[in-house]
Amino acid sequence: MKKVAALAASMVVALALSAPAFAHFCFKTGWSDAAATHAAGSQAWLTAGEWNEFIDFAVGAGEICSAGADVLKGQIAANPADTLYMGPGLLAGGTLKNGKGNTPAHVGYLDFEAAFGACAA
Fold first, then answer.
1. Residue 85: strand pairing partners
2. Tens digits of residue pLDDT in 82-110
3. How many domains does the chain have?
4. Which of 17-21, 29-33, 110-114 has the lowest mean pLDDT?
5. Residue 54: which H helix or E strand, with range?
6. What CA–CA distance (Å, rounded) separates 5 from 8?
């Protein structure tokens, strides 16, 4: 719970700073059991449950609307069970920014633009 609270506090600050940057939160599937165990215990990678807790916190803090939260939770639910999500920092786009189409198949990005778009509708 401390991990989620600390993450939530830092994320609320990040949410307030720049909504477009959210498009770069990544996730990764296909972890080996050992790698998933190690990564899930880190401060960088979050489980689907932890991400969903953060989304609930963001709704409660007024940082995203319920419809937008539903969009994000739907994206998370659509991923395989072994998916872990990058949490504590905004990313710079990784392989997406170089325009070469070389993002590995097991890496993806949560679509925050769609989530915030649902809030504007």
1. 27, 46
2. 888 887 554 445 555 556 665 666 677 78
3. 1
4. 17-21
5. helix 48-60
6. 5
